[in-house]
Amino acid sequence: MTLQIQPHLRLGEKEKADYALLPGDPGRVGRVKDFLDHAREIACCREYRTLCGYYKGVRVLVTSTGIGGASTAIAVEELGRIGVRHLIRTGSCGALQKGIKTGELIIAAAAVRDEGASAAYVKQSYPAVPDARVFGALKKAAGRLNRKHHCGIVRSHDSFYTDEEKELSDYWAGKGILGSDMETATLFVVGGLRKIKTGSILNVVVGPGEGTEAGVGDYASESDRLMEGERAGIRAALEAIVELSTSGAPGQL
Hints:
By secondary structure, the protein is of the alpha/beta class. The chain is 33% helix and 26% strand. It has helices at 26-33, 69-81, 132-144, 165-174, 184-193, 212-220, 224-244, and strands at residues 19-22, 37-45, 48-55, 58-63, 86-95, 105-113, 149-156, 179-181, 197-206. Strands 5-8-7-6-9 form a five-stranded mixed β-barrel, surrounded by five helices.
């Protein structure tokens, strides 16, 4: 049974849209606002800050998920319960492969489930993959924006501070994994189980072999290169939504 108001997001069905962006940082929600028409904040509770607005006539929600898979799973569940059918993560990540630079984008074609939230839902043999149409729309949008981007598998994990971080990064880099974040695998798995179409486009804020503290610190201080990458990821996600919303589809004005 659908609750009238979702307990964590504090949203009801009257606030729904077909499409939502999922940044991690609540502060990034305000920066997405600059891209939208008629944008207004409609809820704020704990790590979940939500605004709604329109991009090229398409109604869009923007909800922060906080850090990690557990809070992301809650956001996916509650947005799905109010009727959101497409979720695109506009997040950040660390690169694992040489040649991927900070400020560039990674579009996730799949994710290694090296986090605990998705394991609470289904066996590890269940794949963490995006919706094919959403993935294709993100790739097309990034190409149209002439933004350097990479497509491939990412790894989602639960902590920056385990005792084997370097060994883990080296291991997954050796398997061809492009980068690491903390939310994409959970989004793909929970979205897939709940029949919500998902995608993930990530701004590289830590280069391969760089320390997390320095890279994330630069991002927090709004380094020009990293903020440019963030804006490109947001723009690509919004353009992908326009691509997905065919003429007359729900969610348009």
